[in-house]
Amino acid sequence: MKKYLSSLVCGFGAGVIQIVPVAKSFTCCLIVPAAAVLAIILDRKANNLSLTEKIPMQKGLMIGLVAGLFAAFFGSTFELLITFITKSNDIIFSLPELQKMIGELPLSPEFTKEISDLFYLMADEIKESGFSVIYTVSVLFNNFITSTIFGLLGGLIGTQILNSRISRDV
Amino acid sequence: MFRGKIGLNKSMVTIALGVWCLFIFMPILFPHSLLSSLTVIFGKGICKLLCHQEEQKLFHFSGCYSLVCARCSGVYLGAFISSVLIFFVQVNDKKGLLLITASCIMLIDVLLTTFGVYPYQKSIAFFTGIFFGSVIFFYFNNAIHSLKLESKTRKVI
User: Fold this and answer.
1) Domain count, chain B
2) Contact A156 B96 (CB under 8 A)
3) What are the Cα distances from residue A31, in Å, to A82, A111, A150, A166, B19?
4) B152 close contact with A: CB closer than 8 A
5) Nearest CB to A106 within list B37, B142, B147
């Protein structure tokens, strides 16, 4: 666990930022890769690596992956917790807009109704109990897939940039 | 140094990026089709995690909108263009000047539009995105190359 302490710290930070209204839009493209890079830098400092020592790419990749996983875990947990406490979320607010958008799509009336019913069922469950299985599954699925990919990318590109800076300085 | 050897992995990355670009532009490439409708329903939620999706910043055609904003579209398209270019071109950027330049240009545009110095223009956002995406892909490619070298060295040892 100590090996991935930096990933845990940065993943937690990214998870917290994920629930901030404006910042959450940049979760994947900025926050998760930045958390992965920061985790690599922290790991470097924690292991007292000399300035000339390069980080193995595989290590950078693993740190990025774990940071992404932690970010997804904490981000999902906080989001579900806030939904549970407030019994409200973005989907409830955007439901009329969503309904309008689905209505404009060239789909069969049955299919449109099915999708609308699904969204309304989810919204009703959240309003009543603050919890919806469909919402939970979609949040977990989306967060884990995207955060993992962007964590990996951040780890890989971050290690490459940090290593190229080292070889340049040497 | 970025090498340009044609390999299965590189081709797969190019195909994956191509499919992704097609996915984000699907609603405007095939407006009002069943395929684009399904893309909007299932893709909007996923892309919400990647982009703010503000309506005035999305590309639109015939009342249909792209899944991500002009800048994000540029980044992904730039990465795709680079993934094709690496088969033919080698890029040397040991000093990281390209990355710094691309990042600065994009950041300056973001800041100037955010603080209202000039209004948001899709074309500028799109082209700064393309530049940034293509440069970041070169780093990604280089990183994959280093990773392969590293695992080969480990096998030898």
Assistant:
1) 1
2) no
3) 20, 36, 9, 24, 24
4) no
5) B37
